[in-house]
């Protein structure tokens, strides 16, 4: 038998583990050296002695890493040999024996999601380079009080080596134009280890390494005495509560035995009270940090609901796999109440491969049939018969879906994690609950009362009572755990509430934007930590979901930068003024066209450069990636100062800065206060040789820089990507951004479509090539380049077609806002009739006319609405102006192909008002199209003849003039001398005939004695008597004799003679 080497561990290590075992606190240990197996076994032995039991072990590592593990077959063989005496415990098989007697769970970092809800006595972290901030939170949170988190650092002789360690996440943070990563997060991580009072650095012999301030025995004992009393008091109160309910009716005493903390027990009692109230319109909001027992409390409350004979109980969550802890405590409640599986209830698991066999239904048939059914967050229509709805992790569900879920006449219990690694549910706490409070205060006219202990408040909202519960005590460890305090401070998870400022609000135009030096911000100094905490608080309060990885990205991503908007700074100020707004930006693009062409040809999508790669794949143009863009990742304004112009002020100053409008003309030396990273690293190495204790790095760089003190990057355009909502669309549209991409699939977390908008800058000639490298625009001073206009028209054409399909769920006014954002990029060219007739024929205009005159129903023109809407929104009828409401109706019915009832419901209109507005819109559109038709037909009419002059006077004027002429003629006749008609008639026959011209011509012929003037057979003027005689007794006409009838001379003479 080979003797094992004995290791004399440091006494301070033993003291720390013993005291934390009594306090139910966790220890954090960093072990240097390569003898991993020996170190883990010794520490596990010390923990076992302190707790009186062998704790389970969670061993986390990278995938395909060298992990000390044995198969079950080998362990069974070793166990058999040990029992039979064939082998003894030796140095070679000591770790195998340890694994045989200890439950060890191996987990890859990528699979850390699967260990949520589990509890272990010790956690071993191997391969630190594969750890992310989110993973660190998950695996650390699973350790129970009295256990330890062990960080193995083989091959390292100092914690300083972590500051320059290359992490696996850095490969995802690199971009083509920013390939170098500076591990600022690791540097701050090393400095932060001194904040943890339960942290020790040990060498391979488990001796203390004096790199950080450590605790001595006296300090540990003092802390032990203070916190042990608080722990005993909390446990005593829980026991007193259980004893007070010992004689209560079922199920109170049975369920109280399943509660782990006093907060949890009080929350379960409150939920039971709501379930037993009459009316069934109560809402319970349970919020807490991670590991406080929210899901367990929900499960116990549902068990009580089954006992109280609630038949239809529905539960929802982002995924059914998140309900493992919930159903576990439902069954624990059943066991406490005497329910037995198979005889009293049955469990039904999902057959969907994506759900991994998760429980989706529990059927209870003890007395009569009851169900606990899982439903998707979007299936609010299935809750018509519900009596109780349970929403687990409501902050991870889109806010519109949560509002729809709680709209029924049933009790609602919802929980959400507001602090911790799962992210902060700010949308739930800031929006939904705030709306419920305001509605209740407006209806009741009283202030909302809030009590402390477990932070409960009750208000009434439109018949629904709201009860707010908050859990603060962890179920795994006691309050005041040093590891939790360190972790929350490291990742800024303990700042869910933004500090309110009592100072006056300065005008936005007086505020200034400052560039934040990340190297100083993450150095660990007190002043920089205060600013970092304030920045992260604003970012957490403005975003729907946050993750610890956000801080790591902000720290290490080489393309990211931070700007803060501050009020005016005056001399004599002892501290920084409050931050009014925060802007996080990222430089993208700068990828050569040849590289992007090869990537797009292979159909790949590299990480980073979100906007360039997305637009390049959408518009099939590799030239987009060659331009340099600045993407605004986040804009966060202080909650007390929102909608006051501070966010817009920050955006405008940012655009001016990158347009070159804040460049200082003064000559300044940057080497005096800005050190390169190489020089700074060399300075740190020199400090390492002279200083053993790790402290925050000393630097002469300023924390904040004015925009005039820093030269901006050469940027061609600004961009932004966000979840599409109407307020955000209006905000970015006012700032001059154009939407060029909208995803066809909704985000699973927010229920919104992703939208990317672009705002080109005019500081150089490369701006015109934003979306088309071949575009040639001679006017570089225009607000929109020709290529952006071209792709704007292309986007609008696609967007119009998608509104009837994947984007039909958009609100009509939101879709209208997207269309109107492109109003300045579309050509306002009126359509010609030759083109219009192919879309709207003359017969179609007749149908529109009948509807506009209320002679036909709207269904007669339903097939024309899409064509009409397309013409109007593509600016082909520029003379038509519609109100926003009329345009919204046209979008919903014409482009989204919705029924009138659906559009009316979306716009919240009355039917009569909607029909009237729609009819007026059709009349305006019909008038414009009819004018185009008439103008085209007028071109084919005969040309105007100047000879055909229309009468210049009216009929009445013509009659009046004729009457005047008649009167004048009658007056003239009265003035003439009276002559007898007979005498006048007899003299007329002697009138000399001929006109004046004829006589002048005859006189000029010469000296002749005879003058010949042509006369007429009948006078030019006849008297009335002559006219009457002519009409009554016409003279017979003389007939001409023919030549045959003409008599001869002889006959005539003969006749005369005879």
Automatic annotation (TrEMBL):
GO terms for molecular function: 18S rRNA cytidine N-acetyltransferase activity; ATP binding; tRNA binding. Residues 668-682 have a biased composition (Basic and acidic residues). Residues 13-202 form the TmcA/NAT10 N-terminal domain. Residues 535-761 form the N-acetyltransferase domain. Residues 668-692, 766-786, 1001-1058 are annotated as: Disordered. GO terms for cellular component: 90S preribosome; nucleolus. Its EC number is 2.3.1.-. Its main location: nucleus. This is RNA cytidine acetyltransferase. The lineage of its organism: Eukaryota, Metazoa, Ecdysozoa, Arthropoda, Crustacea.
């Amino acid at each position: 038998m080979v003797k094992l080497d004995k290791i004399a561990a440091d006494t301070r290590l033993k003291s720390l583990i013993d005291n934390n075992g009594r306090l139910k606190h966790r220890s954090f240990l960093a072990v240097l050296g390569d003898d991993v197996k020996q170190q883990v076994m010794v520490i596990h032995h010390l923990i076992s002695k302190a707790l009186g039991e062998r704790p389970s072990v969670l061993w986390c590592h990278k995938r395909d890493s060298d992990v000390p593990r044995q198969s079950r077959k080998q362990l069974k063989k070793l166990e058999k040999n040990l029992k039979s005496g064939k082998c003894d415990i030796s140095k070679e098989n000591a770790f195998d024996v340890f694994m045989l007697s200890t439950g060890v769970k191996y987990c890859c970092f990528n699979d850390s999601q699967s260990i949520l809800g589990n509890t272990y006595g010790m956690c071993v972290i191997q391969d630190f380079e594969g750890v992310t901030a989110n993973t660190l939170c998950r695996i650390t949170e699973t350790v129970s009080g009295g256990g330890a988190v062990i960080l193995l650092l083989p091959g390292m002789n100092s914690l300083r080596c972590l500051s320059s360690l290359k992490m696996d996440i850095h490969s995802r943070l690199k971009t083509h134009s920013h390939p170098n990563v500076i591990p600022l997060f690791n540097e701050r991580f090393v400095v932060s280890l001194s904040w943890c009072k339960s942290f020790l650095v040990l060498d391979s012999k488990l001796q203390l390494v004096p790199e950080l301030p450590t605790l001595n025995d006296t300090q540990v004992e003092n802390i032990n005495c203070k916190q042990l009393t608080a722990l005993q008091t909390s446990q005593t109160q829980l026991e007193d509560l259980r004893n007070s309910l010992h004689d209560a009716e079922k199920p109170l005493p049975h369920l109280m035995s399943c509660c782990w903390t006093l907060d949890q027990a009080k929350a379960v009692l409150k939920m039971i009270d709501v379930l037993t109230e009459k009316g069934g319109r109560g809402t319970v909001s349970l919020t807490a940090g991670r590991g406080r027992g929210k899901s367990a409390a929900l499960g116990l409350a549902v068990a009580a609901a089954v006992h109280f004979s609630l038949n239809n109980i529905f539960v929802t969550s982002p995924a059914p796999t998140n309900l493992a802890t919930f159903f576990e405590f439902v069954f624990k409640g059943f066991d406490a109440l005497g329910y037995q599986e198979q005889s009293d209830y049955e469990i039904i698991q999902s057959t969907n491969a994506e759900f991994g066999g998760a429980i989706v239904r529990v059927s209870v048939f003890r007395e009569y049939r009851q169900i606990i059914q899982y439903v998707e967050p979007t299936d609010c229509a299935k809750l018509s018969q519900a009596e109780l709805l349970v929403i687990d992790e409501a902050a991870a569900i889109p806010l519109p879906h949560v509002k729809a879920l709680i709209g029924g006449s049933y009790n609602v219990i919802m929980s959400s994690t507001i602090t911790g690694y799962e992210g902060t549910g700010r949308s739930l706490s800031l929006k939904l609950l705030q709306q419920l409070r305001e509605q209740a205060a407006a209806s009741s006219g009283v202030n909302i009362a809030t009590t402390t202990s477990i932070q409960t408040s009750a208000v009434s909202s439109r018949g629904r009572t709201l009860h707010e519960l908050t859990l603060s005590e962890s179920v795994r460890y006691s309050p005041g755990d040093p590891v939790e305090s360190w972790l929350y401070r490291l990742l800024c998870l303990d700042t869910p509430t933004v500090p309110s400022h009592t100072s006056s609000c300065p005008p936005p135009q007086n505020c200034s934007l400052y560039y934040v030096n990340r190297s100083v911000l993450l150095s660990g100094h007190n002043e920089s930590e205060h600013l970092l905490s304030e920045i992260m608080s604003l970012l957490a309060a403005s975003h729907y979901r946050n993750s610890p990885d956000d801080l790591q990205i902000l720290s290490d991503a080489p393309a990211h930068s931070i700007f803060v908007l501050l009020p005016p700074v005056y001399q004599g100020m002892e501290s920084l003024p409050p931050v009014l707004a925060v802007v996080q930006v990222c430089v993208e693009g700068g990828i050569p066209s040849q590289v992007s062409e090869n990537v797009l040809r292979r159909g790949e999508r590299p990480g980073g450069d979100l906007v360039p790669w997305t637009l390049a794949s959408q518009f099939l143009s590799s030239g987009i990636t060659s331009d340099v863009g600045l993407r605004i990742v986040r804009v966060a304004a202080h909650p007390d100062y929102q909608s006051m112009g501070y966010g817009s002020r920050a955006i405008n100053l940012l655009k001016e800065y990158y347009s070159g409008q804040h460049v200082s003309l003064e000559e300044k030396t940057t080497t005096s206060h800005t050190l390169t990273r190489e020089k700074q690293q060399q300075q740190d190495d020199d400090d390492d040789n002279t200083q053993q204790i790790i402290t925050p790095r000393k630097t002469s760089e300023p924390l904040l820089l004015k925009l005039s003190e820093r030269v901006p990057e050469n940027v061609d355009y600004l961009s932004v990507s966000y979840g599409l909502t109407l307020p955000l669309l209006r905000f970015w549209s006012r700032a001059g951004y154009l939407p060029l991409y909208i995803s066809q699939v909704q985000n699973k977390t927010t229920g919104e479509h992703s939208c990317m908008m672009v705002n080109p800058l005019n500081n150089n000639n490369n701006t015109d090539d934003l979306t088309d490298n071949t575009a040639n625009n001679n006017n570089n001073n225009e607000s929109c380049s020709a290529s952006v206009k071209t792709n704007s028209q292309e986007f609008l054409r696609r967007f119009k077609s998608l509104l009837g399909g994947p984007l039909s769920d958009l609100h009509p006014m939101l879709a209208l806002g997207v269309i109107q954002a492109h109003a300045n990029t579309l050509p306002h060219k009126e359509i010609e009739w030759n083109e219009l007739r192919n879309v709207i024929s003359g017969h179609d205009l007749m149908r529109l006319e009948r509807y506009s005159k209320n002679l036909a129903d709207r269904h007669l023109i339903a097939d024309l609405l899409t064509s009409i809407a397309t013409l109007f929104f593509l600016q082909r009828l520029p003379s038509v102006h519609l109100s926003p409401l009329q345009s919204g109706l046209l979008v919903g019915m014409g482009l989204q192909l919705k029924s009138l009832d659906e559009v009316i419901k979306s716009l919240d209109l009355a039917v009569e008002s909607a029909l009237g507005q729609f009819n007026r819109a059709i009349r305006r559109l019909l008038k414009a199209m009819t004018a185009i038709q008439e103008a085209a037909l007028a071109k084919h009419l005969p040309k105007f003849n100047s000879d055909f002059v229309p009468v210049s006077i009216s009929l009445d004027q013509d009659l009046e003039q004729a009457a005047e002429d008649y009167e004048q003629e009658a007056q003239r006749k009265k003035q003439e001398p009276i002559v007898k008609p007979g005498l006048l008639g007899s003299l007329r026959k002697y009138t000399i005939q001929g006109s004046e011209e004829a006589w002048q011509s005859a006189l000029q012929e010469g000296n002749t004695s005879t003058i010949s003037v042509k006369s007429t057979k009948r006078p030019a003027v006849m008297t009335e008597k002559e006219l009457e005689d002519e009409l009554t007794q016409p003279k017979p006409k003389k007939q001409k004799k023919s030549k045959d009838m003409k008599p001869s001379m002889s006959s005539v003479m003969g006749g005369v003679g005879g």
